[in-house]
Design brief:
This protein is of the alpha+beta class. The protein has helices at residues 28-34, 36-41, 48-53, 66-82, 106-114, 131-145, 160-170, 177-182, 236-254, 273-282, 294-297, 304-312; strands at 6-8, 12-21, 24-27, 57-60, 89-94, 121-124, 150-157, 192-200, 208-217, 225-228, 231-234, 265-268, 321-328, 332-339. Strands 1, 2, 5, 6, 7, 8, 9, 12, 13 and 14 form a 10-stranded mixed sheet that branches. 49% of the residues are buried. The model has no long low-confidence stretch (mean pLDDT 94).
Length: 340
Amino acid sequence: MTGNTTFRHHNAALLSVAEVTAPVPVPSSEFDRVLAPTLKRLRLPQGLLERVAGVTERRNWHDSGDFQAGAVEAGEKALAEAGIRPDQVGLLINTSVTRENLEPSVAVAIHHGLGLQPGAMNFDITNACLGFVNGMTLAATMIDSGQIDYALIVDGEDAAKVQQATLNRLNEPQITRDEFMNEFASLTLGSGAAAAVIGPADRHPEGHRIKGGIARAGTEHHELCVGDHKGMFTNAKALLENGMKLVVAAWREAQQEWDWRHMDRYVMHQVSHIHTDAIVKAIDLIRDRVPLTYPKLGNVGPASLPITLARETQNLQPGNRVLCMGVGSGINTAMTEIVW
């Protein structure tokens, strides 16, 4: 395999990871209530989201635009937990899918909200649900090179517009069963925010070493899941099938350099019961080492993985090996090892 799909870091450590939970719970039963006329007409049962996806609830913000404030709050929490001042940050990367405008970047508002120094580079990295993992890799590489000392990766997601647009469209009288199922994934989306601080390992022996990992692309499948503010349109069967093929290919290639068969945790991007179960079976993972947040939070896009990691930190012990695993529409996959 040519290229740089396998990579190692030499002096990067995760110093903190924090989440901000969106305040408004939205149970799946509420979507069933709204969609009752369509479900009846198409002869579909109530409770599909809970039974098929395993999502009983997700969270939303109070107002549109709160996702940016959530990202700022998550950033403040991560900096405080790491003991790093805003003026020490040399790089801010926002990785959110959510954005209100095409420009400027979402990062500029978060940079301003956090009071970061003018010398702190700031920009967005967007790669569907894989953005946060990509942001961590870029930040760790820049720390390895000595270009920066500390990086802050942030993500704020707001699924409310997509949810409402999808509900409105699925209640139109001409919607077919196939069209309904193609938009089913939109209803698993949730809102929330997360942030992580990465710094030099040689200055922070208390930090969690970011060892490296692997990335693989299957971009011939870039049309299988396409989303905007109006909804997310997914060929769920083909996306799952080809996503699993890519994950398995990356996993097998990684075994040439990494032994990930007996990790203490496998922290995955959170999508659904079907997605998680497929990965566990495909690469034979130990199921009780896979923490889950999708049942109560849904799919919070790129924020899902760091939120899950943040919630799991209290259960991790020094020396535990954690594999962060993400798959993003496109299709791309990445796996990164962190030693706690």
